[in-house]
Amino acid sequence: MTEAAKTSPIQILLVEDSQTHAAVIGTAFETEAHRMRLTVVRSLAEARNHIAETPPDLAIVDLLLPDGRGSQLLAACQGQSAAFPMVILTGNGDEEAAVEAMKSGALDYVVKSPATLEEMPRIVDRSLREWDHITERRRAEKSLQESEARFRLLYERAPLGFQSLDDEGRIVDVNQTWLEDLGYAREEVLGRNFWDFLAPEQREPFLASYSRYKALGSNEVSDRDAEFALVRKDGKPVLINFECRVERDEQGLFKQTHCILADISERKKAEQALARERSFLQSVINGVIDPIMVIDLDYQVLMMNRAAHDMLPDPRQDERLTCHKVSHHSDRPCSGADHVCPLEEVRRTGKPVTVVHEHLMADGERRFFELEASPLWTPEGVLRGIIESSRDITDRLNVEARLTENEKRLHHLAHHDPLTGLPNRLLFTDRLNQAMAKARRSGTQVALLFLDLDRFKKINDSLGHDIGDRLLRDVAIRLRDCVREIDTVARMGGDEFLVILEQVEEIKHVALVAEKILFELQQVFPVDDYRFHVTASIGIAVFPDNSPDVDGLLRCADVAMYRAKDEGRDRYQFFTPDMNSRARDYLLLEGSLRQALQEKQFLLHYQPQIDMTSGELIGMEALVRWEHPERGTVPPGDFIPLAEETGLIVPIGDWVLRTACAQNKAWQDKGMAPMRMAVNISGQQFRQPDFVDTVKRILEETGLDPEWLELEITESIVMENVGQTILTLTDLKVRDIHLSIDDFGTGYSSLNYLKRFPISKLKIDRSFVRDVHTDPNDAAICTAIIALGLSIDLDVVAEGVETEGQAEFLRTKGCIQGQGYLFGRPGPPETISRHLTDQPSPCP
Q1: Of 238, 254, 274, 301, which one is least surrounded by beta carbons within 10 A?
Q2: DSSP one-letter string for 82-147
Q3: Burial grade of 588 (CB within 10 A; 0-12, 13-18, 19 or more)
Q4: Among 102-106, 582-586, 716-720, whose mean pLDDT is lowest?
């Protein structure tokens, strides 16, 4: 029906799943709302339902829809009484499919672009006019059947070449397109045989085909995919697609053939170029070791490399494959948290994604792959699919799992007593700090019980360490049974135990726990054929009454424990102020320490660091000593904690650093081979805001090259504030100063943190090296630390190496650097100078 004949708006049905394209078309029809009404559906199913209820005047159908192809709607609507025209919408590259849709009955096709979508009302007008013509011709079909068939073919293929041939194959007529395609004038071709214009090798095949064409019925069409090569007048080849229909007279006798010739030369060139490009791309991705697949939105694998092909359950099955068939040998797409579908994630986010999948390989082995999927967009911004690469990370995950397990084991061994499984001093200190912090917030108290077994040494000496160790394990079990879940029982070493009682509201409850412990320990301990009755002396200190900090509370409990022993053992004693003689000694020591700094009573000794495979000297560690004018040499363990507590450790540490750098430079100036000087840095010193500037200034003042300075920071220090620690260490590292972690294995560091710290060396704490031959746990810790360090390319140095047996054990595990009495005791500069003269080995 023409527009003029309609009294109501023209009903247009738009079948389009793209909201963007539908919106653009809808906007274009807004100006035509008075005469055209647009209805939008998004799938074939919706379209069929709408057509069944209200047939439109014209349908605009997208070629590719979520539930099928637009051409399927043509087949579904053919033969309906309420016939209507259809216009196919297609994207660039889909023209051939659109033409096929036209051959199936579509009126026209439109390639999507901003311009064509905005011109849809005009295209609809044109299409309706065309449909009116077609409808009119159909009304006259009975009387004009033969001429209408010829007219329709010419009309539908007007942009294409057209010719008519007689029974002998002579050219009766051609259209202008035919002449332009081959470069001839009309008078040059009429009456000539068509095969005169064919390439020589094409003539015999065409004659055979033409014989078949002439046998066609009036309503039959030849194969539409026939292709022949013609030769232009200028000698250039032209490849055509050939389609033929026979015209017969009223008696059914042959009259003419009417043929359509479509120039497909450019299309063939494009197909060949595409094939070459695909072949090149295939060769490129085949060179990639990791599996690669190109996947469309229907999960179909469009292309894969050899590595992906090798994953197929059946290598011969490479047609119509889906990505989930390749990866998981499944007929369904991936789903769930364990197998996130990369295609669906890209479709959802529009961004590249990375997921990990477990794959079943062709040989039945299960391996883990890291899948990286990137979206593939059309120039119009439409998602066409993804390119997915996968990398086998099974071995990496296995290594990481082993490292994590070793790390957990190392962490447990480093923070628990290997004999009893109780927390050791390190974990005890952390637990006590936490308990005190909670008590401050809640207004409660914390009690610390320092427990020492009475006369345990006699059992050890008379019956052996095995019996003694088993008794200690049983004691630990009973102690745990005497306290609550929130309380902590720790072993300090030997026969000393600590108990932390949290959330104490009344002191009498602490006394009850102490009495319970004494009672339980007095009960018989059966060990083999022996029956032991154990007593203990318990000292009790209370936070915050006796001390506000861990060290002070521990000293008070220690003093109270010794008072309990002095009063006859097998009893408990609360700390009282009259027990402060030790505290007074501590205050006197603090005064002497301040005086020592002023009077320069400190000096440095130096201990060699040795390559345990060659015996070469590779460095020195500077160790501070205090020569007290009355007490003589004061051990570092007696004054370093006090210096930390009073803040004197900062000026002492600066003095040590300056003196060590100056001494190293002095040795170099005397012509001795350069070596790296290791200097311990305290926590307070490291946390000073100007610490890096202080180190820089000391190096400038002493003239020592930063290459020959190594700063040792304990594991507990670097874990206090990881973010700031990394910044400080990085600042030192960029200045060519070497960094190491001292006493490794006693803190809370992990593999993840170690990889982030810019360090070059780990030092195994001497407590683990000492019993490496007799204690399996110490041997396991040393082995784990060495493996951990080597796995992330760090040097490992063992401290406290005193026997050749220890050195040999360390060497066999991969640790080749050590220091200890086996190689040399710490000595003053003059002693070390002679050592350097004997072994002038440079620091590597």
Answers
A1: 274
A2: S---EEEEE-TT-HHHHHHHHHTT-SEEEE--HHHHHTHHHHHHHHHHHHHHHHHHHHTTTTSHHH
A3: exposed
A4: 582-586
Q: CA-to-CA distance for 432 and 435, rounded, in angstroms?
A: 5
Positions of E strands within 193-334: 226-231, 237-248, 254-263, 292-296, 301-304
Query: What domains lie within the chain, and their CATH numbers?
Result: 10-139 (3.40.50.2300), 147-263 (3.30.450.20), 269-392 (3.30.450.20), 409-579 (3.30.70.270), 609-623+647-838 (3.20.20.450)
pLDDT of residue 74: 80
Burial letters for 93-107: b for 16+ Cβ neighbours within 10 Å, e otherwise? Answer: ebeebbbbbbeeebb
Q: What are φ and ψ of residue 572, in 5° steps?
A: -120, 155
Residue 843 pLDDT: 39
Strand order in the sheet with 292-296: 301-304, 292-296, 383-392, 366-377, 353-360
73: nearest Cα among 101, 109, 38, 41: 101
Burial 737-767 (b: 16+ CB within 10 A, else e): bbbbbbbbbbbbbbbebbeebebebbbbbeb
Q: Tell me if the bond preceding 423 is cis, omega within 30° of 0.
A: no
Q: What pLDDT was estimated at residue 841?
A: 46
**How far apart, in whole angstroms, are the C-alpha atoms of residue 615 and residue 604?**
24
Q: What are phi and psi of 710, to 5 degrees?
A: -125, 125
| 69 CB-side CA count, 13 A | 12
CA dist., res. 195 & res. 210, Å (int) = 10
- φ/ψ of 448, rounded to 5, equals -115, 120
Residues in the chain: 844
The pLDDT tens digits of the residues spanning 342-389 come to 888 889 888 999 888 887 766 778 888 888 888 989 888 899 888 888
Mean predicted lDDT score pLDDT of the chain: 85
Encode burial over 535-566: b for 16+ CB neighbours within 10 A, e otherwise: ebbbbbbbbeebbeebebbbbbbbbbbbbbbe
Q: What is the pTM of this model?
A: 0.41
Q: Partners of 617 in the beta sheet? A: 610
Asked if residue 501 lies in contact with residue 513, where contact means CB atoms within 8 angstroms, the answer is yes
> Residue 159: its pLDDT value, please?
67
Q: What is the pLDDT of residue 184?
A: 92
Q: Count of CB atoms within 10 A of residue 820's CB? A: 22
Phi, psi (deg, nearest 5) at residue 7:
-100, -15
